[in-house]
Amino acid sequence: MPTLTASPTLGDLLKFECNPSYCRETVTLKAGTSYPLGSVLGRITASGEYRLSPAAEVVGDEGAETAIAVLLETADATDGAITGLIAARGPVILADGALAFDASVDQAAERTAKIAQLATVGLVARTTV
Q1: How far apart are CA 69 and CA 24, in angstroms?
Q2: What global pTM score does this model have?
Q3: What is the pLDDT of residues 56-72, one digit of tens each?
Q4: Each residue of 2-39: pLDDT tens digit?
């Protein structure tokens, strides 16, 4: 019998949210990639677009190295910039196991740093069962 697997849902990521009208925003996601649910995002200072938050500053995408939001839906921006729904401010509790990081964030210390950056805007990641 084949094993069935389900794609992650918003309920897998979002465990508590004070008020969606206050905590969420619609933003522009930078072109060139597909963003999974739970993407940890940073804001590019020059353009105002959001992208996966890299471990260190990337030339041309300065500012995005600071994690300030989490994507609340999947978004395919491979062909061009698109809008996406984010958790922008708390109080929000997220499942840490459902967060998706940029490929450059590949060390435990880097992930911990990104989670700490999210906490400064009220997006708190917790271990859930």
Answers
A1: 9
A2: 0.94
A3: 999 999 999 999 999 99
A4: 887 888 899 999 999 999 999 999 999 999 999 999 99
Bridge partners (DSSP) of residue 82 are 29
42, amino acid identity = G
Token representation of residue 96 = 């840490």
Per-residue pLDDT at 90 exceeds 90: yes
Q: 101, 40 in Cβ contact below 8 A?
A: yes
Q: Which two tokens stand for residue 121?
A: 């805007």
User: Rounded mean pLDDT of the chain?
Assistant: 96
SS3 readout for the chain: CCCCCCCCCHHHHEEEECCHHHHEEEEEECCCCEECCCEEEEECCCCCCEEECCCCCCCCCCCCCCEEEEECCCEECCCCCEEEEEECCCCEEEEHHHCECCCCCCCHHHHHHHHHHHHCCCEEEECCC
Contacts of 13 (CB under 8 A, 6+ apart): 37, 38, 70, 72, 94, 95, 98, 99
**Cα gap 49→83, rounded to integer Å:** 9
